[in-house]
Amino acid sequence: MGRFEQRRDKLRRLVRKEGADGILITNFLNVSYLTGFSGDDSYLLVHREGAIILSDTRYAEQLAEECPGLEVDIRRSGQKMVDSIVKTTKYAKVTHLAIEAASMTVALRDTIKTQLKKTDLVPTTGLVMGLREIKDREEIKEIRKAVDVAQRAFAVIRASLRPARTEQEIAHDLENQIRLFGGSGCSFAPIVAVGARASLPHAMPTDHRIGAADFVLIDWGALVGGYMSDLTRVLVTGKISTKLERIYGVVLKAQLAAIQAIKPGVLMKDVDAAARKVIANAGYGKQFGHGLGHGIGLEIHEMPRLAADFDQPLKSGMVVTVEPGIYLPNWGGVRIEDDVLVTKGGHEVLTSVPKDFSSAIVS
Questions:
Q1: Domains 3-132 and 137-360 share a fold
Q2: For residue 25, what are the contacts with CB-CB under 8 A and spacing of at least 6?
Q3: Which residues, at least 6 apart from 358, have a Cβ–Cβ distance to it below 8 Å?
Q4: 325 closest CA partner among 235, 199, 205
Q5: Model's pTM, two decimal places?
Q6: Can you name the CATH fold of 3-132?
Q7: How confident is the model over 25-36, as a mean pLDDT?
Q8: What rounded mean pLDDT belongs to the chain?
Q9: pLDDT attached to residue 77
Q10: 69-105 pLDDT, tens digit each
Q11: CA 47, CA 294: separation in Å to the nearest integer?
C-alpha cells in the first residue's frame, strides 16, 4: 500500500467515527496530501471502497501521470462541479457524506443538500489537518530540502548586503536566489524590515535602505516539492548598540529554552511558556504578543500551534517553528526563528544558520 493510499485509509477510519461512510474533500491542499496531485480546482470523494478525484479536462493528463490507478471523474465543458459531486456520491452509494466545514461554502452545501435528498451531510472539522500534523519520512525529506534552499539563498543575500540596498530589493533577490537553488519560490512573501520597522512582526518590504539603521530583520522561507520552510534572523549592519545586544540576547535565550523543552508528550503551551518566562523575567513580557510557533508543511501556517491556549501534547513527526520576539515601537524588533522536528527521543533543529550575536554582525 502506497503512502497516499495509507493516508486515505487512515481518513476512512476517522470518517467512520464521525458516523459517515464517505467524505468530500474540498480543500485543494488536502486533496494533494491524500493523492499526490499537484493541481487545483479538484475535489476528492473518499468512500468505503476507494476514492474518486473530481476534476476537469485541463487536468486529465496530469492526473494520469501523478495519480496512476486512482479513479477520476472528468467534467467536460458546461458541466458543473456539483453535478460531478452528485453523480459520484450516488455511484459510491454514500448515504452519510462528511464534508469539510472549514472549506466548503454554504452555497455549495445547500446545493448538494437540495440535489442529494436521501444523503445526510455530516459537517467535520480538521480530520485531514490532524493527519497532516505528523509528517512521514518523505515529507520530512522535502522540508529538509526547503530548509537547505532557504539557507543557501540567505547566505548569498547576507554576503551582498550594502547600505544602498532597499528592503524590496532584498526581498526580490531572496526569491530569485531561492529559485536559482532549485526552489519553486518563496513559501511566503519575505519580510525585510530595517531598524524601527522591525517592530512590525509582518512588515511589508519598502524602499527603506539598509544604511538607514543599524540592523535589519529578515523572515523568509523556501517552497520545495510542495513543502515549506520558515526562518528569521536579525543582522547588525551598523553600530553595535548595548540595547540591541541585550534584547538579542534575551530573545536567543528564550528560543534556546523553548527548543530544549521540545519532546514527545510535552504540552504545546508549556513550550510557549518556556520562552515567554525568559522574556517576561527580562521585563519585556508585554512586547512578546504572538504565539511562539506553528506547524509547517504544505502550508506555512498549519497545525500544531505552540501557544498559551494549546494544551495538546507534542508528537514525534511534528515540525514546528520556534520564533520568540521582542518588539519596541519606534525602536525596532528582534525575532529569531528555526524549524524544529519532534523526534522519538526529543527534537532536531533542522535549520543551521548561525544565530549567536557575533554571527549576526555583518562586517
A1: no
A2: 31, 34, 43, 44, 45, 46, 100, 128
A3: none
A4: 199
A5: 0.95
A6: Creatine Amidinohydrolase; Chain A, domain 1 (3.40.350)
A7: 98
A8: 97
A9: 86
A10: 999 999 988 889 999 999 999 999 999 999 999 999 9
A11: 31
Strands 332-335 and 325-328: antiparallel
pLDDT band at 363 (very low <50, low <70, confident <90, very high): confident
Cα–Cα distance for residue pair 301/311, rounded to 1 Å: 18
Q: Which CATH number fits domain 137-360: 3.30.450.20, 3.90.230.10, 3.40.50.620, 3.30.420.240?
A: 3.90.230.10
172-207 in b/e form (b: 16+ CB < 10 A) is: ebbbebbbebebbebbbebbbbbbbbbbebebebee
Task: Report yes or no: 36 and 53 within 8 Å, Cβ to Cβ.
Answer: no
pLDDT in tens, 146-178: 999 999 999 999 999 999 999 999 999 999 999
| Domain definitions of the chain by residue range | 3-132, 137-360
Q: Which residue has the cell 458543473?
A: 80
Residue position matching grid coordinates 534575551:
250
- CA-to-CA distance for 311 and 319, rounded, in angstroms? 17
Query: Phi and psi (nearest 5°) for 269?
Result: -65, -25
Which of 18, 1, 2, 8 has its CA nearest to residue 44? 8
